[in-house]
Amino acid sequence: MRLPFFGRPAALARILLVDDDPSILETTEFVLKKEGFEVRTAKNGEEGLKVLETYEADVVIADIMMPKKNGLEMLAEIRRNPIWRKKAVMLLTARRQSEDVLQGYTAGADCYLTKPFQKDQLISSVKSILAAVQEERDEKGRMRRIVDQ
């Protein structure tokens, strides 16, 4: 099933999935692709940022505990970059303490899910983030039309 997204009926929502655990990466990629999303992967935050330079992901899903650059460091760089700052970011991690969740949201995460995750919970969260991003873009488009008139 192809998901219409951002007014491009034949286009897929694009997801960058970043995790250092090959089995989690493979399983999560399979679940997302089966749902109709286009998915690119990276094995750590450093590699994920390099992928973002050439891949216009609609949502970034990142683990927190990774080598080279962890998910929070990656998120901080995304939020500092004027081109990526508004990009939707979901943290998908085994860190489940309330302090960890608070730290993730304080760092700028749009969503925080813990492992192990339920397939339906992941898909629902991704769709909710995409709907919010679409709504924000629609509102900006309406504002531009008003200003142009």
Summarize the topology:
Elements: E1 14-18, H1 22-34, E2 38-42, H2 45-52, E3 59-62, H3 71-80, E4 88-93, H4 98-106, E5 111-114, H5 119-148
Parallel strand pairs: 1-2, 1-3, 3-4, 4-5
Helix pairs in contact: 2-3
The CATH topology is Rossmann fold
Backbone shape? globular
Mean pLDDT: 85
| Tally of helical segments | 5
First CA to last CA: what distance?
Answer: 38 Å
Q: What is the CATH superfamily?
A: Response regulator
Named CATH architecture: 3-Layer(aba) Sandwich
CATH class: Alpha Beta
Describe this structure in words.
The chain is α/β, with parallel strands linked by helices and 149 residues long. It has one domain: Response regulator (Rossmann fold). The protein is built from 5 helices and 5 strands, in the order E-H-E-H-E-H-E-H-E-H. The chain has a 5-stranded parallel beta sheet, with helices on both faces. The protein is globular and about 50 Å long. The protein starts with 13 loop residues before the first strand and ends with a helix.
